[in-house]
């Protein structure tokens, strides 16, 4: 019984070695990694707001939250925000307790909360919508994400820049070693994930973040690994 794990381990190592060797060309070759990036200016945003109310009864906290959310959604729609640009979570209610040093926990009220996500297709109106949230009674903004409407266009540009970078490196290295590139033998590519610009979470005061996003940029990166065959 003790011999079986050793045999399995040897078989695994043999399989791994065969796989590695199979992926290594047996002819003169050159390996390069190309990097590309594009700097884009955000033209849209998404922000998440949350209203939290604590009252003596569950019904009171629910009514308080429902009123704020209703006022906020009504104001957004009046300003031209489409329904598909707004999503909201279900109402969450939890009892709040006071824990004295000696004695049983005491119920002191109920906290209700609800989250609303808003997509801003016109970045110039971001502050306006944040002010609308403030006026409606929203008391927290969890985050603001600055984005671009057509990320694929910028990703294509970054990918092309990565390809050119890989080719330029290969040409330079081959020339430096008095070699010629015969062709491309293998290309490895994994689609990178694009990260939006995240503004810090904040208490609900839109003016504290008034124009900090206006000069922000999004860097979209790409990468490609290439193996070239040499003469």
TrEMBL record:
Signal peptide annotation: 1-22
Q: Which domain of life is it from?
A: Bacteria
Pfam families in UniProt: SIMPL
Looking up InterPro entries in the UniProt record yields: 26kDa_periplasmic_antigen, SIMPL/DUF541
Is this entry keyworded Signal? yes
Q: Does the keyword Signal apply?
A: yes
Q: Which UniProt keywords apply?
A: Signal
Name the UniProt record assigns to this protein: Oxidative stress defense protein
Query: Which species expresses this protein natively?
Result: Vibrio variabilis
